[in-house]
Amino acid sequence: MLIKKEKFITRYAQYGSVGVALIFSLYYAIINSPWCDEIAYVDPGAQLFLTGRMVSTAWITNSPEVLWGSSNPGMPLLFAGWFKLIGFGQLQARFLFCILHLLGIYFLFQWIRQRYNPSGWSLSLGLVATLLLPSLANAIFQCRLESVAFLLSMLFISYTWSDRGGYLNDYLAPFILGILTIFFGLHFTGFFILVSGAVFLAMPSRRTFIHGTLLITGILLGFSILYLVYTQLGIWDIFIAARTCHYNRYLDWVPIGWNRFNVTFDLPILALLSVVGLISALHQRHELSPRAWLPWITALATFVFIPLSIGFIGIYYGSYSWMVALPMIICFYQGAPTLKAWARKVFISIILISLVIAVIKTAKRIHTAHIDSKIKVKVTEILTKKLNKNDSVAADFSLYYNLVEAGLKIYPRTSIEDGLQLGFTREKFLPEMISQNINCIVSKRKKSPPVLSTLGGDWYLFGEIPFTANGKSDEDYQIFFRK
C-alpha cells in the first residue's frame, strides 16, 4: 500500500512540474509584447480577414498597396481562416501559435516514449526543458512560424522513423509534408532534407529511402505550384527579392568573426551536456561498443554543423535554434541509458541550473510585458479620442493588435534606415502618397527621430507616456500629431 502511495505521489509531482511549466510558458507567450517577425506573418492574414485583400504594411519588401508576396502563403492563409473562426486579436493569434507548438511537443515526446521508453522523471524533465528553454520555447515566446516547422518536423519523424507501415505512413505522409513545407517556410526546407537523410542513415532501408525521396518530391512539387501561382498573380519578383535580401548579411551588433550567429543562451549548455555524455561513454570504452559514443558525437556535430551551414548562406538567428535543439534532445534520450551515475547527476544538475536561469529571465520579461501592456492601453485610449476610424498611424509593432482592433491603420515600417539595411528604398514599403496620409506617430523615444525624419513635414509632441517612474527612458512612448 505504501509503495502504491509513493508511486502516486511521484506521478503527481511529475504531472505537477510539467503543468506549472506549461502554465508559466503559455502565460508569457500570450502576454509578451508583439514584435516585427510575429506581425509580419499575422498582418497579411489579418488584412485578408478584415478587408478581403492580402496586403500588409509590416514588410519592407512589399508595398502596402499591392498584393502581398514577400514570403510563403501558408501562415497568412492559416491566420485568415483562424480569425474568421474565432475573431481577431492578440489572444486569438497567440492561441494558434501555442496550439501548433504544443502539438509539436506532443508528437516529439510521444515518439520518444515509444522509441526509448524513458523513466517518468526523465520524460518530465525533458518536457519542462522544452517548455522553458528558449531554443524551442522561442517558437511561442516570439510567436514565429518555427512553431509550424517544429510540428511538421515531428510529424515527418513520427510517420517515417517508426515501425508503423501502411499507405499513409509510407507514401502519402512524407509527400504531403514536403508540399506543406514549401507553403509554410522556404528557409527550413533544407533542414527537412537533412532530417530525411538522418532517418535513412539511422535506419538504412528501402522504406526510409522512399520516405526521403517522396519528401523531396513533395518539396519540388510544392515549389513548382508556388512558382506558378505567384507568377500568375504577378508577385514572384517580390517573393524572390524578399527571400534573397538576407543572403550574405551579417549582424552589426555582434563582434566580427561571429557576426553571422545569434544563438540562444541554452545552446552552449546543450553542447556541454553532449560533452558530459561523451566523457561518460569514453570512461566505459572497454564495457560499451563504439556505437554508444554515437549519440553524443552526433549531438556535438549538430551543434556545430547547422549554425555554420546557415551562417555560410546568411544569418543564423537565435530563432533557428530549434533546428539544433530538436536533434540534440533526441540524441540525449538515445544516449541517456549508458550514462554513468556521476554523469547522470552532472547532467541533471546542469539542466536544472539552466531551467532556473530561463525562469528568472522569463519572469523579468513578464514584468516588463505587464508594464508595456498598461501603456499600450493608455496610448490606444488617447488615439481613439483624437482620431477617426481608418486614420493612419505610424506606430511600433508592439501596438499592432491594439490599434488594429481600434479600427486604425498602422504603419510600423516608417524608418528609412530599416529599408536601406536590406537594399530597399522608402518608396518600396512606404510610398509618398501613403506617408502623406499618416497624421499621427506613436514611437518609443529612441526610435522617434528617424521616424520623424523619414515622414518629413511639421509635427508637434502631443504627449509622453513614461515607461517607468524613475525619469526619462528610451522606452517612453511619444505621441506626435501633424501641425
Structural account:
With about 475 residues, the protein is mainly alpha-helical. The protein has a domain at about 365-480. The chain has 20 helices and five strands. It has helices at about 1-30, 35-50, 75-85, 90-115, 120-130, 135-140, 145-160, 165-185, 190-200, 205-235, 235-245, 265-285, 295-315, 320-335, 340-385, 400-405, 415-420, 425-430, 430-435, 450-455, and strands spanning about 390-395, 410, 440-445, 460-465, 475-480. Strands 2-1-3-5-4 form a five-stranded mixed beta sheet. α4 (about 90-115) packs parallel to α7. The termini are far apart. The model is unreliable at about 1-5 and about 250-260 (pLDDT under 50).
Which descriptors would you attach to this protein?
483 residues, 20 helices, 5-stranded mixed beta sheet, mainly alpha
Concise account of the structure shown:
This protein is mainly α. Helix content is 66%, strand content 6%.
| Separation of the first and last Cα atoms | 80 Å
Estimate the mean pLDDT confidence: 84
Total strand count, please?
Answer: 5
SS element count, helices = 20
How much helicity do the residues have?
Answer: 55-70%
Overall body shape: globular
Compute the CA-based radius of gyration. Answer: 24 Å
The secondary-structure element order is HHHHHHHHHHHHHHHEHEHHHEHEE
The largest sheet has its strands arranged as: 2-1-3-5-4
Give start-end ranges of low-pLDDT stretches.
1-6, 250-259
The proportion of residues in beta strands is: 5-15%
Based on secondary structure, the structural category is mainly alpha
> How is the main sheet built?
5 strands, mixed
